[in-house]
Design goal:
Number of strands: 11
Shape: globular
Largest sheet: 7 strands, mixed, barrel
Order of helices and strands: EHEEEEHEHEEEHEE
Strand order of the largest sheet: 1-3-2-6-7-8-9
Number of helices: 4
Radius of gyration: 18 Å
Strand content: 25-35%
Structural class: alpha/beta
Length: 206
Amino acid sequence: MKLYIPDNIKQALAAYIRHCDIEISGLGSTVPTSKGDLLMQDITGFPQTCGAVDTDLDMSAVAAAIATRTKDDLPLNTWFHSHVDMSAFFSGTDKGTIGELSAAFPFLVSIVGNKRGEYKARYDQSLPVPISIDLEMEYLAAYDPAIDARIAAEVAANVRERIPVIDTSKGNPLWGHMAWGIGESMEGNENDESGTDGSLETNGYT
């Protein structure tokens, strides 16, 4: 089974990862094609608190986004997240998240990527029987600077880093939140990852 990703969505996915030096995640929509493959329709980020190896989406923002969707809108059945500079693979924690999310939809598409432009994708469904399938990803390589600028501004506004605060009276670390957007610390991290992957003729894949 293949996952087709249009060029603008592929660029947005790469930009989310490139502009954030800690893990970041988001949601999107994917639909089945008439040939039994999958076509990704969109992705979006949400306010979130992130660490070196985890992300916590602001569920009130997610709920608000779901509440505004109509019956004609596509479901948020796609989850993406980054592993920053680590390998692109689905960890035990990732698989637990996938198990929880896949129960809410007829199927779930999950994507993990890193700053080297490496990606993995999988398809999961819970009913009538649990199924997990590794997906082959195909997409067009293209570049739109407006997309990159939009994602950079969004990451700076939405992502807050979780940092340890030491309680010297007890000697135990307490977790706090940094009050500024991480985009302020990412100047000069503008290396373009577009164009490093193969191209795909779109005619006939739907």
